[in-house]
Structures are given as structure tokens and as C-alpha cells.
Design a protein that fits this description.
- The protein is of the alpha+beta class.
- It has 2 domains: 3-131, PAS domain (Beta-Lactamase); 148-311, Alpha-Beta Plaits (2-Layer Sandwich), CATH 3.30.70.270.
- Helices cover 46% and strands 23% of the residues.
- It is built from 10 helices and 10 strands.
- The strands form 2 sheets. The chain has a 5-stranded antiparallel beta sheet with strand order 2-1-5-4-3, with helices on both faces.
- Strand 1 and strand 2 form a beta hairpin.
Length: 312
């Protein structure tokens, strides 16, 4: 054997040793036959399938999560035919029946005529990275939920109420259904805080929230804290009469709770004043108008002596 041949053999052995000592799993597929020309032995440590069991592209496809299979195969085949290097993340099936997140980085090899000759690439285990990504996404969702949640009572805050109103207004414009909005204010709440202290005031707000939340609201109805001692109810597909029934039931439940309020000028327990506004968004207007209308009606309820409901 010539020195050049010996050197080539040594180089090949060195490259193979280097490739097989990394965590990345090297592989090569012959494009004409779609059969594996090579796959690193690390594949057995990662997925449990023997090196010799990776015969053709069907083995790769069948050992992929069903939810990932279609788009990954279509994407990789299209990119390969176009001669474009690419990468794809998917879940690979282990011999034990579990799944491991894989990132396949693919290089398209062309011959002298520019035709696709082979695909070579590396498989990387990205399970830990995916776990971290999912954890971050979960934290982001939790933070987003918190950003829409009133910190004291746990119900929707003003930001979420505004968002819900925008969505429900647009929905009502399309459907032609009415949309109602109730503004509710605890009567003489400043005096309650002065008499019992702010901690007791916080407890009172939480109790009122629980009472309102128990008023058998429908899935799309949204209860929120508008600010301070003011609460609001967004009632989609609800006309004036139905909204009044919700308001009356809520007010009755709060009265029945008999939360002591010796400093109130209305009663010796917590009472509420309410403004009930109903709109037909398909006829025009905007959500801000509905909120303003409910606020005006609430003001009238307070002017008229509190512990009552005023509707438009």
C-alpha cells in the first residue's frame, strides 16, 4: 500500500473516531436509494434502536411521533429536492416506547452535474432544551395570566375587562346580539375602611368577589374588578331584562351575606349600587360608550340613595 493510501486510511479512521466520540449523531443517506449509507453508533445509546436497524428512510419516518411525521417529512423532502440545507425539530420514538426531541441538521450533497447525490447530517438530542423552552413558555403564560388578574381578588383586572369588551363588542356586531355591562360599587366603602381598617377592607372586597362569582355566571360572562371598590360584569348576548335579573340576583346575594358595616348611611351591612347598560353593537357605537353609560347609571343609583339598581 502506498504512503498516500495509508494516509487516507488513517485520516478516515481519525474522522470516524472523532464523529463517533461526539454526542451528535452523524448519518448519511444515498438519495437515489433513500437508504442509510451510514449512521453513528451513538443512535443506539440515544434511542435504543441498533445501528444496523437503520436501513432506509422508512425507518426514520416510522420512528417519528405521528403528530410530527407529516410536516417534517414533507418539509425535509421538499428542501432536499430543492438542494437546500435545512434543519427540523421532531420527537423520535425510542425502543422503549418513549419520545426524545431531536434536531436534524441536514446538508444536501450534489454531484458535478448539480444533481442531489446524498444527504448528510447530524442528529442532536435537544430534549433538555425543549424542556427549558416549555418551562419558559409556561412561565410566560403564567405571567400573562397574572397581568390580566387582579392581585387582591383574583378576578379579571381592568386590562382584561377592556380586552374582553373589545372582543365581545366585535362578536356582537357580527351576530347582531345585544351586549350588557354592569358597573357595581360598594356603598360607603371609604367609611368601611375608616371604621374597620384597610386589611378588613381587603377581606370585604374578597368576600364580595366570592359572592358575585357565585351568582351562577355563564361561561362567557366575565367578572372583574374595575378599580377600588368598583366591580364590573360583561354579559355577552344579554338583553336589558336578562342583565337586570343578573344585577338583582347579585345585589340580593350581597344583602343576604349581611357583611357588617356599622358606618354605612344606608344599612348596617354592606350594600351595593349598580348601573346596568345594554347596547346593540350592530347599530353602532363602541365599548367605551357602553362603559360610560353604565358608569352614569351607577352615579344615578348612588344619587338616588344607593343600595339600588338603575338600568337604561
Amino acid at each position: 500500500m502506498s504512503d498516500d493510501a495509508t494516509e487516507i486510511g488513517v485520516d478516515t479512521a481519525v474522522y470516524k473516531t472523532l464523529l463517533e466520540s461526539t454526542k451528535a449523531i452523524p448519518w448519511k443517506i444515498d438519495w437515489a436509494t433513500l437508504r442509510f449509507a451510514y449512521i453513528g453508533p451513538q443512535i443506539e445509546r440515544l434511542l435504543g434502536w441498533s445501528q444496523s436497524s437503520w436501513v432506509g428512510i422508512d425507518d426514520w419516518v416510522e420512528r417519528m411521533h405521528p403528530e410530527d411525521r407529516s410536516w417534517v417529512v414533507d418539509f425535509c423532502v421538499a428542501q432536499s429536492k430543492a438542494g437546500v440545507d435545512h434543519e427540523a425539530d421532531y420527537r423520535a420514538l425510542t425502543a422503549e416506547g418513549n419520545y426524545v426531541w431531536i434536531r436534524d441538521v441536514v446538508h444536501v450533497v450534489r454531484n458535478d452535474k448539480g444533481e442531489v447525490e446524498a444527504l448528510v447530517g447530524f442528529m442532536f438530542d435537544i430534549s433538555e432544551r425543549k424542556k427549558n423552552e416549555e418551562k419558559l413558555l409556561r412561565l410566560q403564560r403564567e405571567l400573562e395570566e397574572l397581568s390580566y388578574q387582579d392581585g387582591l381578588t383574583g378576578v379579571a383586572n381592568r386590562r382584561l375587562l377592556d380586552s374582553v369588551l373589545e372582543v365581545e363588542w366585535a362578536s356582537a356586531q357580527r351576530s347582531g346580539q345585544p351586549l350588557s355591562f354592569i358597573m357595581l360599587d360598594i356603598d360607603f366603602f371609604k367609611q368601611y375602611n375608616d371604621r374597620y381598617g384597610h386589611l378588613a377592607g381587603d377581606d370585604c372586597l374578597r368576600r364580595v368577589t366570592q359572592i358575585l362569582d357565585s351568582a351562577s355566571l355563564r361561561p362567557r360572562d366575565v367578572l372583574g374588578r374595575f378599580g377600588g371598590e368598583e366591580f364590573a360584569l360583561v354579559l355577552p348576548e344579554t338583553d336589558r331584562e336578562a342583565a337586570l335579573l343578573v344585577a338583582e340576583r347579585s345585589r340580593a346575594l350581597i344583602n343576604d351575606a349581611a357583611i357588617s358595616h356599622q358606618a354605612s348611611e344606608t344599612a348596617h351591612h354592606i350594600t351595593v349600587s349598580m348601573g346596568v347598560a345594554t347596547a346593540s353593537p350592530a347599530e353602532g357605537g363602541n365599548p367605551a360608550w357602553l362603559v360610560e353609560k353604565a358608569d352614569q347609571l351607577l352615579y344615578l343609583a348612588k344619587q338616588n340613595g344607593r343600595d339600588q339598581i338603575v338600568a337604561d
